[in-house]
Amino acid sequence: MPESVLREVQDEMLCLPGAGASLLEISHRDKLFVEILHDAENTLRSLLGVSDDYGVLFMQGGATLQFSAIAANLLRGTGKRAEYLLTGSWGKKAISEAKKEGEAVAIYDAKETNYDRLPGASDYTVSDDAAYLYYCSNETIQGVQFQNEPECPASVPLVSDASSDFLCRPLPVDKYGLLYACAQKNAGPAGVTVVVMRKDLIEKADPSIPGYLYYKNHLDNDSEWNTPPTFAIYVLGKVARWLRDDIGGLAEMEKINREKSSSLYKIIDESGGFYRGHANVECRSLMNVTFNLPSDELTAKFISEAGANRLAALKGHRSVGGIRASIYNAMPREGVDALGQFMADFLSRNG
Ligand code: PMP
After folding, report:
1. Which of 122, 130, 132, 136 is positioned for an S-S bond with 157, CB 3.0–4.6 A?
2. 232 lines ligand 1 (CB under 6 A)
């Protein structure tokens, strides 16, 4: 979280200006909260350039509930099949939930190379009548990130799990049928998930699906079909304002993220093979820098010594091993520099 946002939240915690009470105490129907919700939506819309053809929804259930919601709304009962590009762990989880709603097939799967790469346009074919094409723009565990949207026929809605790279760079929303992101990486605290969706697609879904999953309920009720996660939306609005007003927008954020990530990739590339990046160079993530060391012993030593230097949460996921440095938007340049310094120092002592 950006420190300035945490301080604002702290200042307003006991008494929300104008409310005479804490945000945690007022109703989600209170005019002040409704204004906060609309402001959060409008700030996101202006940051991303979202047109009126799209709804912006605030939902609960994390990114995980969207694995089911997407298939319930866009696949169930259509007689079509949904097509998935599997480039890492989260895409695999998503397809397994979609299969409960209808036919969902992987038209690309990078499992043979342990999800270290992304497909080129010639590596897969999307059916013209697919219910949708699904992909994960940044696979958090593997650290592979699409640089551009995958090729997709105009007749097929493109769907993206943007959970771990939402707001890290400009996003051409009009290329998508639907995109979504849990907030807890770049957009705010855990508890809210943003869904940006073409309104005409919402209208096509079958109203008999479970009410919470039915996007139209959320759209028609301005994300207040039931009680929304008020605190998470309030903080998300502040993070969006920080991005727009303090950082200067998403193009500026991308520049900063490129500088931060490339400083670590440079150390990996110049380490003479001591650090080995997991992701192929052309699909390296701006958000999750994944790499291995020559042995498990050195990996354990790296993590332990890094911890002693107050560099935390570096252990890679067990499916990939090694190290994962997650450097989301709010990670300051100084934090990345401190890690880079430690990596260089560790190499000189152990290389
Ligand atoms: N998709 C991606 C890309 C993620 O990184 C995560 C969480 N790390 C999820 C989905 C699942 O999110 P949640 O825990 O909010 O359900």
Report:
1. 132
2. no
Amino acid at 351: G
- CATH number for 3-247 (one of 3.40.50.2000, 3.10.180.10, 3.40.640.10, 2.40.50.140): it is 3.40.640.10
Residue spans of the domains in the chain: they are 3-247, 250-350
What CATH code is assigned to 250-350? 3.90.1150.10
SS3 149: coil
pTM above 0.95, yes or no: yes
The response to whether residue 64 sits with its C-beta less than 6 Å from ligand 1 reads yes
Intrachain domains 3-247 and 250-350 with the same fold: no
Find out whether the beta carbon of 164 lies less than 6 Å from any atom of ligand 1.
yes
8-53 pLDDT, tens digit each: 999 999 999 999 999 999 999 999 999 999 999 999 999 999 999 9
Amino acid, res. 50: V
Closest ligand 1 atom number to CA of residue 140? 5
Residue ranges of the annotated binding site for L-glutamate are 29
Complex-level ipTM: 0.99
Strands 288-292 and 276-277, how do they pair?
A: antiparallel
Give the per-residue SS3 of 282-338: HHECCCEEEEECCCHHHHHHHHHHHHHCCCCCCECCCCCCCEEEECCCCCCHHHHHH
The Cβ of residue 92 has, within 10 Å, a number of other Cβ atoms equal to 17
Q: Distance, CA 182 to ligand 1 centroid (Å)?
A: 7
For residue 140, the CA-to-ligand 1 centroid distance in Å is: 8
